[in-house]
Each structure stands twice: as structure tokens, then as C-alpha cells.
Amino acid sequence: MNTSDLKRYIVWSKRTLDLSDPWQRQWWIEQVLLHGRAEDIVALDWEEVRRLLPHLQLPPWVRRLWEGYFAHADQNAAL
Questions:
Q1: Residue 33 φ/ψ, nearest 5 degrees
Q2: Would 58 disulfide with which of 2, 45, 62, 66, CB 3.0-4.6 Å?
Q3: Of 62, 55, 60, nearest to 32 (Cα)?
Q4: HSE (CB half, 13 Å, CA atoms) of 42?
Q5: Does residue 29 form part of some domain?
Q6: Is position 46 within any domain?
Q7: How far is 26 from 4, CA to CA, in rounded Å?
Q8: CA 20, 21, 22: angle at the middle one, nearest 5?
């Protein structure tokens, strides 16, 4: 992801990101969940977010929101 692809309201401290690097990808997902707009969040890979959620550095209230979201999605899928 180069400078023209980076949304400055999400990432303002870097000029480029290598999303094939697992660390940078995880960092990017954290930033999107914290600073992204709805269209940015919707574009994430939900299974990847679910898998990485326990490892993401998120404020407690953001973590609870996403844990609740996935718990609700699991509940609805079971119906």
C-alpha cells in the first residue's frame, strides 16, 4: 500500500505499508478499527479480524464492541 492508497485519517505516521508483512497487516487492522470510517471497516476481511482480535492492541471498549459483534454474529448463524 503506497502513499496514494493510505488514508491520512487512518495512518498519518507512515508513507507506505507492506500488507504482506504480518506485523504491518495487524497494525493496519488495529488502525482501521480505531480510526477508520464505516467504509474502511466494511472493507476488512472479517475472518481475519476475528482471528486477530485477541492479539490486537485495542482499548477495552473497542475490544468489547468487536467481541460483542462476533458473539452476536455467531448466535445469529446458529439459528
A1: -65, -30
A2: 62
A3: 62
A4: 3
A5: yes
A6: yes
A7: 20
A8: 105
Cell of 20: 504482506
Cell numbers given for 67: 467481541
DSSP letter for 2, please.
-
| Residue at 10 is within a domain | no
> What's the total number of domains in the chain?
1
Alpha carbons 66 and 18: distance in angstroms, whole number: 25
Contact residues for 40 (Cβ-Cβ < 8 A; gap 6+): 7, 10, 32
- Over residues 19-75, the pLDDT tens digits come to 899 999 999 999 999 999 999 999 999 999 999 999 999 999 999 999 999 999 888
For residue 16, being part of any structural domain is answered with: no
In sign, the C-alpha dihedral spanning 62, 65, 43, 54 is: positive
Q: Read off the pLDDT of residues 5-18 as tens digits, 9 standing for 90 and up.
A: 778 888 877 778 88
